[in-house]
Prior knowledge:
Residues 74-105, 115-149 form the ShKT domain. By secondary structure, the protein is an all-alpha fold. It has helices at 23-28, 37-46, 48-54, 92-97, 99-102, 122-127, 136-142, 144-147.
Amino acid sequence: VVSSTAFAYRGKKTITTIDPSKQSIIDTYNRISGFSDVDVRQIDLMYKDECAKRGNGGNGGNGGNGGNGGNGSCTDKDRSCPGWKSYCGKNQHVDTNCKKTCGTCPGTGGGGSGCQDKHTGCASYKRSGYCTRQHVQWMKENCCKTCGF
């Protein structure tokens, strides 16, 4: 669940828009399962000038088939990520912006088949049946080791 007061101290807003006229989008939008792809695209569009000034950090290495590729310039996109570590694999915003903290940088996999889990919640998702039911494609991409894909 991500809202304008997610990870907040005493209800203080932690997610605010550059353009105050857009704040109501963040404040009132239902955030049951984190940011959708559409949300991310809209946020990218709203912040494109700001992001261009900061840079996007790069995508790291690829690890190959069980290889041990480097993690390139993998970094967290938010300085609060270390404090959000317990949300890794549970919150889409954290998973997307805290790859270094969550250990999900591309190319960080060790040997084996090259299939590595990208989320710490994979075991829980498997227990919920997601490897074989409603979220199979997502599980193949994000929890392939746990599900045995």
